[in-house]
Amino acid sequence: MTSAISPPASFAQSPPLIPRDTLLGNPERANPHIAPDGKRLAWLAPDEHEILQVWVRTVGQHDARVVTADKRRGIQSYGWAFDSKTILYAQDAAGDENFHLFAVDLDSHNIRDLTPWEGVRSGVVASSPKFPGRILVALNLRNRKLMDVYRIDLRTGAVELDTQNPGDVAGWLADDDLIVRAATVTTPDGGTELRIRDSAAGPWRTLMKAAMEDNLAALDLSLDGQSIFLSSSIGTDTARLVRHEIASGMETVVAHSDDADLSDAMIQPTRHVVQAAAFDPGRMHWTVVDPSVQADFDAIAKITTGDFTVVDRDLADHTWLVSFVSDRAPARYYSWDRAARKATFLFSTQPKLDDAPLAAMKPVEFAARDGMKINGYLTLPVGAPPKNLPLVLAVHGGPWARDSWGFNPYIQLLANRGYAVLQINFRGSTGFGKKYLHAGDRQWGLKMQSDLSDGVKWAVDQAIADPKRVAIFGGSYGGYAALAGAAFTPELYRCAVDECGPSNLFTLLESFPPYWEVARSLFFTRVGNPGDPKDKELLTAASPLFSADKIKIPMLIGQGANDPRVKQAEAEQIVDAIARHHGSAAYVLYADEGHGFVRPENRLDFTARMEKFLADNLGGRYEPMKGDSIPGATAKLRVVGASPPTHQN
Fold first, then answer.
1. How many domains, in total, are found in the chain?
2. Which of 281, 315, 349, 570 has its CA 20 to 30 A from that of 144?
3. Residue 595 annotated among the catalytic residues of the structure
4. Per-residue confidence (pLDDT) for residue 519, from 0 to 100
C-alpha cells in the first residue's frame, strides 16, 4: 500500500469547499416542459421527502402542485401527452431498466401504470397531435429479446399490438398519422439497414444500407411522408443531416460540418421541417436552416452566456423553452416569447451554485503516440498555480459516447478539492467523424487505453500534472478503463476508482439484457466475438480480470446490485482476484441501484468515499462523511488487502 499524501500548503489559499450535496444532490428544479396547448408548465423538483417528482403549474399563476407520488428512486424522465392533460413518465424497479410507462391524469389525479408487466421494458415510439389520446410504445412483451410496437389508449389504458418485430429490428419510426413507417436494423456485420413501408398494411422493403464503418440514423419523416430525414456519414467522414426522397432515392444535404458529426436536429413538430442543426467539435454551435427562426436564434444567443438548446415548444409555436449550458454554471432555463421577442427566466437547476467558485473547462488536444490527434477538456482548480498538480483522469462511459463542454458536477467537485481534471475523447468516441470512431474498433485495452495514457503524459509534459499523483476514474466503460489502467499500466497511476465497470469482456458480452440481442453484432464487430476462437486472445488480453495480479495500486470499486448491463459479478470477480493476489480494494455494493447511482443518498455516499480515497492517495481536500455511510444509502462495504478507509468519522 502507498502511504497517504498530505495536502500541500497552497490549499490555504484555495476557495472554500463546495458542499457535496449542493453539487451532486437533487436539483432544486430541472427539466421543464410546456403543455402542447401552452397553458401549463411542468418540471422536476423534490417533494417533502427529497424524492424527485413532477410538478405542474398554470402559466402566469402561482398554483404549483406535485402530481406524481414516486416512493423511492425519483422520476428522471417525463413528458406531456398531446391532450395537454396527461403527464407520461418512465420508472424502473431499483435500477433494473425494465421501465414501466405511467400516465398521470391531471383532471382526476389518477396515476396509472400503462405497461404493468413484470420484466417488460417500455419506450415511447411516437405520439401525434392528430391523435392526442393515443401513443405508440415499444414493448418486449411477446418476446423479451424483441421490441414490438403497441398502440395504447390513454383514456382506457387499452393495449393493442400494432407492429410485430420480425426478429432483427432495433428501432422504429412513425409518421404523423401514428403509422409505423420505418425500421432500423443492425446487420450481422455491424452495419445498418433502413427499411420502409408505404402504409400500415404495406410490405417492408429495404430503403438503404450502410456499412459497419458508416453512421445512419432515421430522425423524422416529412409531413407528406414522401421524404425521410437522416443523420448519415455515407460518402463522407462526418455525419450530415440529409433529406432522402423515398421514391427516387435522391438526397439533399440539409446541414453539415467538416469538423464534427451532427449532434442535434431541431425539427418543427407539426410541419416536420428541419429548422436548425447542431455540431460540436469542442463547443456546440447551431446552423440555422429555416429562415423563419433565424431572428429567434440571433436573439436567444444574446440572452446570457453559454450554449443553448430549445428543449420544448407549444403546438402553436408561440412559446419556446430554452436551456443554457455553461462550464461554470448549472443549467438555466428561460421561456422565450417568439412574438414579443422576450425571454423570461424560469430557474437554475442549482441556484446555490450561482456564486460558487466554479472552475473553467478548456478544450485541449494532443497527439497520440501514433500521431492521431486526440481532443478533450482540461479543468484546473480555482486559485491554484497550474503547475505540478494532482491529476484525476476522468474517463467517459459508452465507449461510443463523448465528453462535452459544460457544467459537470463531478468535474467541479474534483477541481474544488484541488485536482486538475483531464477528460479525453479517446478514439472510439462519437461526434468527430467515422474515422475517429472506428479507430477504436477492437481496441479496448489497446489504443483506446493508450490514448488515455498519452493524455496523462501530455499533462505531465506540460508540467500541469505531478507524475506521482495521478488517479484514473470513470463509470461504465470509464470504469473498465480505470480497471484496465490499474492492471495494464499500474506505474502510471497512484490509485483508481471504478463505478460499474466490466472486468471480463467474455462475461460482459455474454450477459447483456435480452433486448440488446438485436444489436449484439455491433459489440462483436467493435469489441470482439467471444464465440470466435480468433478473438479469444484479443478479449483475454483486454480483460483486466486476467491481469489482476498486476494491480498493485489501491482501488475503490462501486457497483449496483441490479445492474442489467454490467452485472454484479463483474465487480465481485475482480475484487476476489485482487484479494487472491494480495492487492488492496474497497468495494461498495448498493442493493437498490443499477447501472450508475440514481438515488441521491447512494450517489453522495459513493462520492464521499471517493473524496476521502483520493485525498488519502493524491493529497487533495475532502468533505468528511459523518458516520460509516450517508443516511438512507444502501452501501455494503467490503475491504480487501490494506486499502485505506473510504470514510472519515
1. 1
2. 570
3. yes
4. 87
